[in-house]
Amino acid sequence: MSALTDPLPINPVKFMTAQLLYRGSNWFSVAQGQRMAEMAGSGAVNLGPREPRVYPLAQVDEALAEMKKRPGGFVNVVVAPGR
């Protein structure tokens, strides 16, 4: 979860009323992701110790509070409405 620097290129009201789903990430750029994949593929970085923290939609406030702590490392805070 992250802030956007550009306007979201969709109309959120139309998505909600049509019950559509939009998934995305603003964690890193495509170039940064490619570089990380290359480093993981070469063994230069170990992605094993990543720590996903998944919250149901009812706990979105707790997820946002977790993000404010900025835990660092490979911590990924996710809000999963289906949980």
Q: How many strand elements?
A: 2
Mean pLDDT: 80
Distance between the termini: 17 Å
Helix content: 25-40%
State Rg.
15 Å
Q: Enumerate the strands of the largest sheet in spatial order, edge to edge or round the barrel.
A: 1-2
Q: What about the largest sheet?
A: 2 strands, parallel
What does the overall shape look like? Answer: extended
N to C succession of SSEs = HHEHE
Secondary structure category: alpha+beta
> How many H/I helices?
3
Low-confidence region ranges: none
Percent of residues in β-strands:
5-15%
Give a brief outline of the structure.
With 83 residues, the chain is an alpha+beta fold. Helices cover 35% and strands 14% of the residues. It contains three helices and two strands, in the order ααβαβ.
Question: What does this molecule look like?
Answer:
It contains three helices and two strands. With 83 residues, it is α+β, with helices and mostly antiparallel strands. A two-stranded parallel ribbon has the order 1-2. Helix 3 links the parallel strand 1 (51-56) and strand 2. The radius of gyration is 15 Å and the shape is extended.
List keywords for this structure.
83 residues, alpha+beta, two-stranded parallel ribbon, extended
